[in-house]
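Q: For a teaching session next week I want to show students how multiple molecules come together into a single three-dimensional assembly. I've collected the sequence lines for a complex. Could you give me the predicted structure tokens for the whole thing so I can convert them for display?
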Amino acid sequence: MSLLDREASGVVMTPDNIRTKRLPLAVNLGIAVAGLAIAAAVVYGFGIGNYVLVVVLGVVFYLIGLQIVAGRIEGPRTARDRMWKTLIYAACLLAVLPLASVVWTLVSKGVQRLDGNFFGSSMNNIGARDPEGGAYHAIIGTLEQVGVATLIAVPLGVLGAIYLVEYGRGRFANTVRFFVDVMTGIPSIVAGLFILSFWVLIVSPWFNNGTPRFSGFAASLALTVLMLPTIVRSTEEMLRLVPGPLREGAYALGVPQWKTILQVVLPTALPGIVTGVMLAVARAAGETAPVLLVAGGAASINFNPFEGGQSSLALYVYQQAGDASRYAPARAWTAALTLVAIVLILTIAAKLLARRNSLSK
Amino acid sequence: MAKRIEATNVTSYYGSFKAIDSVSMTVEPKTITALIGPSGCGKSTFLRSVNRMHEVLPGARIEGSLTIDDQNIYDPDVDVTAVRRMIGMVFQRPNPFPTMSIYENVVAGLKLNGVKKKSVLDDAAEQSLKSANLWNEVKDRLGRPGAGLSGGQQQRLCIARTIAVEPQVVLMDEPCSALDPISTLAIEDLMFKLKDRFTIIIVTHNMQQAARVSDKTGFFSIDKTGDPGRLIEYDDTQKIFSNPTEKKTEDYITGRFG
Amino acid sequence: MGDNPSSRSENTTASDLGVTGRHTRGAGTGVSPSSHDDPPIGGGGALPKKARFGMEAGFKGLSVAAGAMVLVIIVAIAIFLISKAVPAIRADNENFLTFNQWFPNETEPRFGIAVLAFGTVLTSIIALLVAVPIALGIALFLSHYAPKRLATPLGFVIDLLAAVPSVVFGLWGRDVFMEPVREFSGWLNKYFSWIPIFGGDGPFGRSVLLGSLVLAIMVLPIVTSLSREVFRQTPGMNEEAALALGSTKWEMIRTAVLPYGKPGVIAAVMLGLGRALGETIALAMTLGIVFNISFNIIENGGNSIAANIANAFGEANETGRGALIASGLVLFAITLVVNMAARAIIYRRREFRDSAA
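A: Of course. Below is the structure for the complete assembly, covering every listed component.
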């Protein structure tokens, strides 16, 4: 008699029996229906809740029933396997629900103000009773702030990544790499506060007769702080994927290292770098908190990021959401839809580009 | 204890690719059977079909029948986990669980099967490690990580882990290919010892090894890349290595091919 | 950049010698391959001398500066936040760490971080309690259960979820999700009010529960995608070893996948925590923003450091701003610690894996 037979009485299988009974699908469905029915009877019988509770209790009853029945038929191990599988599938369904709700609300509420006026006008002179008003100024703000931030963050980030991959050895490089990762986790509000205390409150008064100046450029600086680590990180990964022989081939021809990097390494990694930049841009475009603190949030159109306040789409959503006017929610949702569209288009384009990129395979 | 395996027209696929084509062979209990042949000829695929590890890979499926003492392991009402418990497997590269100690590695299979009593587990661990010729080397450090052992010791640890659940058949997929000659010798010694209790099938690239350890030898080959592998010849090891029937076998054995 | 003109002469087109510079450093010496005293080697005359201030040095200097910029920024954040926070804390008439009200704009400013810190931690922890089990479930589904045809698009959707701006989640939480949460809170209150966290008399809705649930949805993708990567990296041979011992799929996951992924999952959870602690706008739009310490999670209420900054910034005077910056400094310190711990775990694990391979 084998050890397993002796010690593990639950083991149905013996050397002479490798057969097992399966839980038929009909029984499985039967348990589900019974679970729901009992749940409905309990909930409505005692009057303790609505259909949501029926579903929740039904799932609980189903899992218990499944465990008991499957345990009888298939043995406890298979039953446990089945239960975890059910739970894991349930987790996925549960996560899709809020996402579906967000998408549905965005589209259904967002189309209300999806008109020319919304994209062609600002909130200048729009009172609480005016149904018009648009996000033109906010869109300009977002484009300019993110654009300037990209202009600053991309060269800095790419150079930083070049340092980490091509030059960086030893302790200092490891420290930089570590803090790049840490920096990705800095809350956006802290980046905003940093630019507030550094640029708006300390530096900008020098150019502005001693009074602090809120501006789109300050928002760009805050977004730069947030974009920089993302760009360094993604660029670093792409540069590492460039095959070593490609570099060595250039060195063997007597090309200096800096030229090799600029003319061989960077072009090879370019599609991947662009992907990383697009993802960083998408993230920056959606940031509200730093813009709220340093951009000033003007309601009128202002093309100059260095002077006068600016708004941004994300900030506009926040402002309209807090506005008492009964026309504000529609504006907020339409702006949110626009923002999500911009962000998702950028993200999807970046991911498709990454998929076509031969390096990352 | 050990069981007879009978394969009839076993054909395995990876998706639409046919890896082996109607292999039939009978493996007697308490023997060592070696499977040899060039790379990609499907001998590992056949081995993995014997304990249904083949189907772990996505898209893999199988036709034909494989019986163990007259029970077809591919019958629809067969419990896969029971099959694998009965037919243990040792892999090409030693693969002890990296997060577990030596002791935990050996008793992992028993714990999975619901054995909880400490004394029983201790006994089983000691017996298995002794059977795997590893006890003397590790008895003082059972609590240390299994990954800290040398390659040969790790492979013997994996063998101990496999035989701890008392299988009927032990499959070995090139168990020595990642090991040095001395460790290889240790494993070969171990196989002779285990032969008393288990039916062993071993896939090997090393023809001397096949000649040394096995009672019977099966030679697999392919016509050209992309074709399915076939069992060319299956006979007593003596005969295969001294006087093979097939020309292809002779070419391979004498080193004229593959 | 001071390109040395002598290195531009005709027979030294392959000048600059970045190549040799790189290789000598690799060998551990800083010596140039040719020095002034060396006799000419071979028949081609003297080897070109290494340019001291060439493009190479300039480019390298630039890239080092860019790398160092990251450290500079982190240090600068600390310095500038402290420089603005200290005067405000000096002006504070109460203990900044323990006082539980926020009146920094009055002539005698009184404010403290206690409520805010408590609220930040409370919402984040509840969010993680909800999000982590679901995220791990999805990660396992994507790495081990779903067929590839389903796993790829679903993983894509999860990544997109991470890209949705927080202001959109805030708006959704306030306009859509609040109603079901209010009903649910009422139900909890009706049947479970004997549990203190579900007690109170209402009103319900704009509560810690709502904020935490919205936050949970937002950290879900982070924890999911990191855990999925970790689970995917489980060595296939360990999974096969478990299966070959006769384990079921779930037992295989428990024996091979989960223990192997544990450090990575811990790091993923901590990164999620970092994100949750710093989340601003979504919480500013869904929490009740009141100043009291309460474990009741369903009554209108709740607050957090970041949400308070967003809400109070508009009306803040100079001391008020300083007070907000001081609270931001606390937040910065907390998230820095959490993130550094998470990264340290990931780095240790990476070294472990590299040395094991």
